[in-house]
Amino acid sequence: MSESTMGKQVFLNEKLIPIEKAMVSVTDRGFMFGDGVYEVMPFYAHRGFRLEAHVERLLRSLAAVRIPSPYSQEQWLSHIIAFSQQHEESEQSIYVQVTRGPAAIRNHAFPAVMHPTVYMMSEPLTPPDNKGQHGVAAITATDFRWLRCDIKSISLLANVLLRQYALDCGVSEALLIRDGYLTEGAASNIFIVKNGMLYTPPINHLVLAGVTYEIVLELARTHHIPIGVRAICQEELFTADEVWLTSSTKEIVAITELDQKPIGQGKPGPVFTRMYELYQTFKQTVLYQGE
Ligand code: PDD
Q1: Pairing between strand 181-185 and 15-18?
Q2: Which strands form 36-44's sheet, in the order they lie side by side?
Q3: Residue 158: how many CB atoms within 10 A of its CB?
Q4: Interval between CA 210 and ligand 1 midpoint (Å)
Q5: Which distant-in-sequence residues (6+ apart) come within 8 Å of 116 by Cβ?
Q6: Separation CA 200–CA 227 (nearest Å)
């Protein structure tokens, strides 16, 4: 454990404890089977950004994997907010994980009685500080994940391998292709721009319903940027004028190189720059005036 994390308070089953003392049982099904779900929630200026949407998605993930939610939506919100207030950093990424809890014997089937384990930690949130001026490189990869990518499951082995493949190739993200079509990034949603029009794949069981994705669509509608939510085939990625990724921790980032080929002019495009500014303005408005 690094010195910087020593003594950091985490939330484990309603107790606040230093991270080095936080222990879960080896019989916990999160450890045994990757049997659990999670959320990553950004806090700016000590306030949760779209917190309700994250909690709603957490409740949807829990329901989808049939883990009884230990808390109501209101209780989740108050636990998460109270936990964030334990940390002095104004910009945090709050990680929430719920597993199916401990089970006396190792059996794939659920235990008769479930006692879900709830864990939360706060990490510093450092969105890209280049003011959207620099893009990143990415690589395409076969999407070999399961067929329920709408669930924010802690079983992330495929995502882990895909992200590491991207890093091993010296790029920031893997854009996932299933049966010739773009699904999403290994830890992000993807948008493309062609002739001034913004396109993104629809949300279904193969894609996570990103909170940032939803904000970008809302901003596009409000500010009359034409959008098309439709399937995007692999070839379109290479002929796009712009490609972007979105996530709660990275916000919106331009992808300016894909499979070692430049996208458009090889730098963040005009639609990206506009959306980046709209997003920053929206963030400030929400945080200081409410939605
Ligand atoms: N991941 N798709 C996948 C597979 C993701 O893992 C994420 C985010 C997103 C974007 O969702 P949102 O805009 O709600 O953050 C899409 C988080 C940040 C993570 O796993 O750390």
Answers
A1: unpaired
A2: 15-18, 9-12, 117-124, 92-99, 36-44, 47-48
A3: 15
A4: 6
A5: 36, 67, 68, 69, 70, 98, 99, 100, 101
A6: 8
What is the number of other CB atoms lying within 10 angstroms of the CB of residue 106? Answer: 9
Note the pLDDT tens digit of each residue in 89-144.
Answer: 999 999 999 999 999 999 999 999 999 999 999 999 987 767 788 999 999 999 99
Instruction: Please give the distance of CA 61 from its chain centroid, rounded to a whole number.
Output: 13
Percent of the chain with pLDDT over 70: 97
Q: CB of 153 closer than 6 A to ligand 1? A: no
Rounded Cα distance, 148 and 17, in Å: 34
CA 249, chain centre distance (Å): 7
8 is catalytic: no
Active-site hit among 8, 15, 21, 152: 152
2 or 10, which is more confident: 10
pLDDT score for 5: 77
Tokens of 174: 């893997």
**Protein residue closest via CA to atom 20 of ligand 1:** 187
Residue 245 CB neighbour total at 10 angstroms = 25
**pTM of full prediction above 0.90:** yes
